[in-house]
Amino acid sequence: MPAVTTDNPLTLPRVAAPADARQRPVLGVATAPQGFEGEGFPVRRAFAGIDHRHLDPFIMMDQMGEVEYAPGEAKGTPWHPHRGFETVTYLIDGTFVHRDSHGGGGVINGGDTQWMTAGSGLLHIEAPPEELVVTGGLFHGLQLWVNLPREHKMMPPRYQDIGGGQVKLLTSADGGALLRLIAGDLDGHRGPGSTHTPITMIHASVNPGAQLTLPWRSDFNALAYGLAGRGTAGTGGRPFGTGQSVVFGAGDSLTLTADAAQDAHTPNLEVVLLGGLPIREPMFHYGPFVMNSHAELAQAFDDFQAGRLGSIPADDAPRTAPSTAPKTGE
To answer: Entry's SUPFAM superfamilies (predicted)?
Structure first.
């Protein structure tokens, strides 16, 4: 069960698309391949195989877990660099601790979102807290990478810590879906996340058999990712479920419908909805660097090797340091 919920969605503000809104068709459904990241925690690469023209301004997204760790199994990442984009880490269950080479950091708990603008660059580490390592427990979340436009790529790094209690809670027209608006605008309501690139990010829980139709900015792209459960996308009823991404075409609204019967693991269809204003600039992505040219990528790599992105704090130096080559992904 997601950490942020409500006893009665019918008390929440309701969101509905205008009756004459143009429905977005489903262009395709992609299944995320599974693998491991960091020190060995399981991930699904949500956007693998999707053409970047449908993703812009998003770069990639990993579903981390869902995994029930036994004692001693919980894992994180080694120290690694970032430059030129933002990471959005949304935890559904569990706890993560993050630190950086500039002294920033904090704890992300279930329901929280940690928004890191890497900008000009830093070194970063994410790890499970000691109590999760000792006792084991459930861990489940997402990490989304959002591109920065050229004018903001070298801005100073910054953080936004968005507690679960800050998320704007909404419901669908009939109360059959709970919407957690993390960032952006939806039907006149605004989420707490502040973004350099205009985006909308929503975690929706759709009750079995319920249909969710939302207004959607026509100048945004539109993506849906199945965290858990089964359902269909679009008015044509394109099936999708856990670990699958839906790419929508042009229009003013989008529709999702939860299957009437869900499996025992989840009572609802759990979906992350994403939309953003395309940047439409050249993008060159290599490992943890996302820039506008090969020359800028080479400079980022040189700056990393020369220590200009920061140094690992002395009290953490024995832990695995970044390799001399950037990693491919988070």
So the answer is: RmlC-like cupins (SSF51182)
